[in-house]
Amino acid sequence: MNASLVKRTLAAVAAVGALATGMGAAQAEDVKAGFIYVGPIGDHGWSYRHDIGRQAIEAELGDAASTSYVESVPEGADAERVIRQMAQTGHNLIFTTSFGFMNPTEKVAKQFPNVKFEHATGYKRADNLSTYAARFYEGRYVAGVIAGKMTKSNIVGYVGSFPIPEVVRGINSFMLGAWSVNPDVQVKVVWANTWYDPGKEGDAAKALIDQGADIMVQHTDSPAPLQVAENRGVLGFGQASDMIKFAPKAQLTAIVDNWDKYYVSRAKAVMDGTWESQDTWGGIDSGMVELAPYTNMPDDVKALAEETEAKIASGEIHPFAGPIYDQAGELRIKEGEDATDEMLLGMDWYIKGIDAELPK
Amino acid sequence: MEWIVPFILTVITASTPLLLAASGELITEKSGVLNLGVEGMMLVGAIAGFAVTASSGSASLGILAAVAAGTLMSLIFAFLTLTLMANQVATGLALTIFGVGFSALVGSGFVGFAIDPLPALSIPGISAIPIIGPILFGQDFLVYLSIAAVIGIAWFLSKSRAGLILKAVGDSHHSAHAIGYSVIKIRYLATMFGGAMAGLGGAYLSLSYTPMWAENMTAGRGWIALALVVFATWRPGRLVAGAYMFGLISVMQLHAQGAGIHVPSQFMSMLPYLATVIVLVIISSDRAKIRLNAPACIGQAFRAAQ
């Protein structure tokens, strides 16, 4: 290839490029959304649910939107490389879907001011960087109400991952729900110290059932605890996605992450040019937190669960409505007040009445 | 005391996959081969067992597939280290990393599938005897197999001619070769046995322990099996004790938490590993005893003198 040919080719490419840009300005902007997942989409939990949201964008927006994803990205130096790669390959909307992607996302967002970034479960924002998360504790309150009605031994077994605010908040909310219908319920918590080890999660569930628990709740990612509940003939709740297949006789409901609406609305906002940096913490009312069909319970409990779900969505019930005391007896939330988001996000204390010690 | 029976049952299920994989590795190591790929072989066995059971509906076929898959994995290892004489440590590590990725690839279509767990033995009358019944006569097939395998291995190593030959190959491959034994062939067989048992250990996880497929579901149990072999100083009896002690401590820590015993849960999670280290120190302080049992040629490549 001689020099003049190279020049002519370059000129032609530039012309086409200019034409394309001109056309783009005249019409609404097309969305090219990129997703970065911390786990495999086959985890049947967290990353799987985000990918369902990605597919919703393609289904709703059709030809105007294209999406791509990278799965199993480790939270560390690799993440920054993957995010930058996405920004460089023409994506104009990038979702990074794990807390550990916060700093890399912030860094790349600074370098690409024209690309919109969305980071899940973090707290760092910028003009082109939004954050979003879901109020799963609202779903856990509903689960607590169901458990309070369904338990016969008055002992609930809770398999926790790590004693971080997200999980502690869930336990508190669950128990507030349970006590609202049955003040005699007690919870036994076993920390598996892992998000994901089916064998260990299952053993933890067995230990809890052996100690009298007849309701199994989990805040770990595999279906193993629910599966153990099924095999041992007790009841339980699914985590992150509907796990009814694993426990047709045991699952009462599942707290399902649903990102579809949010993802579609954000992609539309980019198309219309109305995208703005914001912080979203959506609950049942936003559709981000969903409860799987209520099964394996009598009709009156089902009706109560549906009513509770509706009341939380309408704001009539706030799971953390005062007065709420901590284990030391200190008043944390005053009568007539609800917990602030700041308090919820940093919750590292058990509410009064939980007969367990929080690992430090 | 009514918790004691379910507690023992949980300990048995937690110990069985370790025992299955470790007893295979014990034979492999006794022949002088160190295969660090146990974790990878277990994972491939787990997905093979699950995939075949889920698609055919037959757990027996699934178990056979797991054995075949584990054996095939070990054949890769054997070909590289015994025929091509690659470094055993590096090859073993590579086999594990390969197994993690390969099982995830094959398993991606099987996530979210549910199957029935392996049926437990049920002898009318006998399985219903309190305490002894459910513990001794209420397990699934693989639990009995794991115990039978260890008894068989103990007999094989101490009483059979073939076992003596195997030990000779592991202790001094040149002498064994000089007497006329085929060192490479024997090591191939021992490595394949290790792979088959690791495959069974994996199948126990995906068919009985937690009847599902999930990426990386062994969560380090292959490495524990490897440590157990050294922990047992290559003796089958101690291997059973070690595997059950490991299962006991890991289940006990979960029970203690549920019972509200306030020990930091991280410390409890660490306990089984701490116990392994302590026992290793105690055993290793008596060097003579270790030398008596350790295969002298472990990890060394064998090249027949020309």
Q: Summed up, what is this model?
A:
Chain B: This is ABC transporter permease. Chain A is an alpha/beta fold.
What do these coordinates show?
The complex is a heterodimer of chains A (360) and B (306). Chain A has 360 residues and is an alpha/beta fold. Chain A contains 11 helices and 14 strands. In chain A, the strands form 3 sheets. In chain A, strands 2-1-3-4-5-11 form a 6-stranded parallel sheet, with helices on both faces. Chain A has a 6-stranded mixed sheet with strand order 7-6-8-9-10-12, sandwiched between helices. In chain A, strands 13-14 form a two-stranded antiparallel ribbon. Chain A is globular and about 60 Å long. Chain A starts with a helix and ends in a 15-residue tail after the last helix. Chain B is mostly helical and 306 residues long. Chain B has one domain (4-293): ABC transporter involved in vitamin B12 uptake, BtuC (Orthogonal Bundle). Chain B is 73% helix and 0% strand. Chain B has 13 helices and no strands. Chain B has helices at residues 4-30, 38-56, 59-83, 88-107, 132-137, 141-159, 161-171, 173-179, 183-209, 221-231, 236-258, 265-284, 287-293. In chain B, helix 2 packs parallel to helix 4, helix 10 (221-231) crosses helix 11 (236-258) and helix 11 packs antiparallel against helix 12. The termini of chain B are far apart. The model of chain B has no long low-confidence stretch (mean pLDDT 89). Chain A binds chain B through residues 40, 42-44, 157, 188-194, 196-200, 202-204, 206-211, 213, 222-224, 227, 231, 245-246, 355-357, 359-360, and chain B through 3, 6-7, 10, 14, 17, 104, 107-108, 111-114, 117, 205, 209-212, 214-219, 221, 250-251, 254-255, 257-260, 262, 264-266, 269. Chain A: Keywords: Signal, Sugar transport, Transport. Chain A: InterPro entries: ABC-Purine-Binding (IPR052910), PnrA-like (IPR003760). Chain A: Residues 1-28 form the signal peptide. Chain A: This is Simple sugar transport system substrate-binding protein.
